[in-house]
Amino acid sequence: TPTGEPALIGGAYQIATGGELRWFSEKAKEIPDVSAVLTGDISIAGENWIPIGSAETPFAGSFDGAGHSVSGLTIQSDENYQALFGYVGANASVQNLTVSGSVDAGGSYVAGVIAYSEANVSNLHNRCKVTASGQYVAGVVGAAASGCTISGCTNSGSVYSSSASGSAYVGGVVGGKGCTVVDCENSGSVQGYGYVGGVVGHAGKVANCKNSGRVQCVKQYGGGVAGQASSVSGCENSATVTVSGEFVETRAWYEASYIGGVVGSASSASECVNRGAVSGRTSGVSHFASVAGV
């Protein structure tokens, strides 16, 4: 339930409690370019969170976590665009924030911090457990528009999509959409059907990223750091990448393709290191193509 209006200093609301964050969420529906700064760590436990910003009314303001955290995020929904921030517009800014809790959604575009972003984002950290049945699922940003840069972000929460789509786009930090991802790290487990990466499922440029969380991919484009990218450089994977394969009844075997320790598929890769195992099924007949250490 929204509580009293927080103090307004220098054009930004000073958010000190969970109730004030809920007030801010409601305010953003009326004035999308409203801005706020966290003045300390806050909790929003005890309620099913309705995301800040939607596809119909994207958040267009500035939100600076100032190095603080929002804990107790709880989302249980069948809708798309589920996270602390549902939809962030191109002129918005969301940065310097850590989010913890649990997100369980039946739709697509699901994450702990931002479900969909048209803006560059930096220094965002997810500790939420994220579970979804749709596409574009991640810890920090479910999907970021092509041309955006995601930098300095980390994920330590588990990420899982039950979507049986070969293009599920699942990542520890970012799900997909062709953005640039730099200086990001993942330590949480990541599991999905296709386009699955420890850091990002599908991206343009990926640089200086690290993964230490286990990656499990069913069908195609699975990698320790990235499932698929145009270029990958200076990246490192130290976790196990496992591929199970999709069962093909007519051939009575499991098929999978484009699986790598660092990246499943990329137009170019340079200065990358893989220290994790790349493993397949332990039972049944497998037919895997394009599986490599890096």
Briefly summarize what is shown.
The protein is mostly beta strands.
| Annotation field: number of helices | 1
Runs in which pLDDT lies below 50 for 5 or more consecutive residues are none
Strand content: over 45%
Average of pLDDT: 92
Over all CA atoms, what is the radius of gyration? 19 Å
Q: What is the rounded distance between the termini?
A: 50 Å
> Largest sheet, described in full?
28 strands, mixed
Number of β-strand runs:
32
Report the structural category.
mainly beta
Shape: elongated
- Please bin the fraction of helical residues: under 10%
Pick out its properties.
single chain; 294 residues; mainly beta; 28-stranded mixed β-sheet; four-stranded parallel β-sheet; 1 helix; 52% strand; elongated
Helices and strands in order:
Elements: E1 8-9, E2 12-15, H1 18-30, E3 36-38, E4 42-43, E5 62-77, E6 85-88, E7 93-105, E8 114-117, E9 121-126, E10 129-132, E11 137-138, E12 141-144, E13 149-151, E14 154-155, E15 159-161, E16 170-171, E17 174-176, E18 180-182, E19 185-186, E20 190-197, E21 200-207, E22 210-211, E23 215-223, E24 226-233, E25 236-237, E26 241-243, E27 246-248, E28 253-260, E29 263-270, E30 273-274, E31 278-279, E32 286-292
Parallel strand pairs: 2-3, 3-5, 4-5, 5-7, 6-8, 7-9, 7-10, 8-12, 9-13, 9-14, 10-15, 11-16, 12-17, 13-18, 14-19, 15-20, 16-20, 18-21, 19-22, 20-23, 21-24, 22-25, 23-26, 23-28, 24-29, 25-30, 26-31, 28-32
Antiparallel strand pairs: 1-2, 27-28
